[in-house]
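R.M. (postdoc): so does anyone remember the format we settled on? I'll just put the structure tokens first.
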């Protein structure tokens, strides 16, 4: 009961990329880069295992950006035709590549990395991929003419990738959909359908991570504008609860998401974010247990997995390590209480 996992990314070691910076360029190249990424993944697997995390991840050591890392291996995208686009419903502008013809996977994107990780841990292993709606919100479209249609095209590619990763022994495949809370009304219309296409035929656990974004300034400002209670999730949790996705990951630590919204996800396992990734302060195990206990008011303990609010990529390695240990220790406190 009350297993532990991470939402996704973990900091890159300083020899691989500049620390405490999102999407920093690689410091290695060619074969050296592949070796560096593997070493980094091994370090984080070991640190997660030592901390007592049950379901470990590669910490996204094999990609620079959580969406573009996948898109780099997709045909039909013109990386020279960069478009400035307001993303997450115009929360901020980003330079994004453009879809100019039907998309197709050139090759398996993450199989090598996943195979390596699988060989190096006997723990349950989780891997994250960008969700179809979030991909569509992070790329310009000059071909499909309709977001739902483009989302289904990307979902088919994600499905090919996910089936390959499952065959390599991945236990949990998570799709990151931060765009869900920018386009709440579209989630029931086509967001869930695209996710269903992405998980078609999978027998491993499937998860979706929804979130209010990393602790970057644009997100902090946006969060300030949302008022005291963040009720966006009420709009689409009923549709998510009816979906075939097994797990939902969301931020609950120091968050203004009222935990009562968890009551709308009665048929899901909940990855309860009990680690705030927007601060360097390392939680005490008691604080982690406090957040998990608060979630228990709306979720049976059997359905709770203790997790981080979001990825920890922008944090220092020291802080991220401390937070991993606090997460595991906090979950252990609660497990003891419940026995
Ligand atoms: Zn997140």
């Amino acid at each position: 009961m009350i297993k532990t996992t991470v939402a996704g990314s973990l900091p890159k070691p300083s020899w691989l990329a500049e620390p405490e910076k999102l999407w920093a360029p690689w410091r290695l190249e060619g074969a050296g880069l592949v070796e560096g990424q593997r070493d980094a993944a091994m370090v984080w697997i070991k640190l997660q295992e030592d901390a007592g995390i049950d379901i470990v991840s590669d910490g996204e050591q094999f990609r620079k950006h959580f969406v573009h890392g996948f898109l780099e291996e997709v045909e039909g995208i013109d990386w020279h035709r960069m478009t400035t686009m307001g993303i997450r419903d115009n929360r901020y502008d980003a330079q994004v590549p453009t879809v100019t013809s039907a998309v197709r996977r050139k090759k398996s994107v993450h199989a090598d990395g996943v195979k390596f990780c699988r060989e190096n841990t006997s723990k349950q292993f989780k891997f994250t991929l960008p969700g179809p709606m979030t991909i569509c919100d992070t790329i310009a479209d000059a071909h499909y003419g309709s977001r739902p249609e483009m989302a289904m095209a990307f979902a088919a590619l994600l499905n090919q990738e996910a089936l390959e990763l499952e065959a390599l022994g991945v236990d949990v495949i998570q799709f990151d959909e931060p765009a869900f809370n920018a386009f709440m009304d579209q989630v029931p219309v086509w967001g869930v359908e695209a996710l269903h296409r992405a998980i078609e035929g999978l027998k491993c656990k499937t998860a979706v991570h929804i979130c209010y974004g990393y602790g970057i300034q644009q997100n902090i400002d946006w969060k300030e504008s949302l008022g005291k209670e963040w009720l966006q999730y009420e709009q689409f949790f009923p549709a998510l609860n009816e979906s075939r996705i097994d797990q939902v990951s969301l931020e609950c630590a120091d968050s203004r998401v009222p935990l009562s919204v968890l009551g709308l996800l009665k048929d899901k396992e909940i990855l309860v974010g009990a680690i705030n990734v927007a601060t360097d302060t390392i939680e005490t195990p008691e604080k982690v247990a406090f957040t998990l206990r608060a979630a228990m008011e709306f979720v049976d303990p059997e359905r709770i997995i203790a997790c981080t609010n979001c990825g920890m990529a922008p944090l220092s390695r020291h802080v991220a390590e401390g937070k991993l240990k606090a997460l595991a220790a906090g979950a252990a406190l609660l497990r003891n209480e419940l026995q």
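R.M.: ...and that's the designed sequence above, right after the tokens. Also worth knowing: The mean pLDDT is 95. Residues 81 and 311 are 29 Å apart (CA to CA).
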